[in-house]
Amino acid sequence: MTTGLITMQGQKKIAMIAHDNKKFALLEWARYNRKLLEKHKLFATGTTGQLLATELNGQVHNYV
Description:
The protein is α/β, with parallel strands linked by helices. It has helices at residues 23-32, 34-37, 46-55, and strands at 13-15, 41-45, 60-63.
């Protein structure tokens, strides 16, 4: 059995999805983690994507 730490390498693709009641919680989380998220490709849909793109200066691929 191995008990090691697995580290992520390279750029990841992250889908960010939020129900209407949780959009602002996701925005708050994204704002807090902005520096970490800048290293990865972000994807979202509709309003969530528009809000995140505004918050993160257009760094979100939005599927409308």
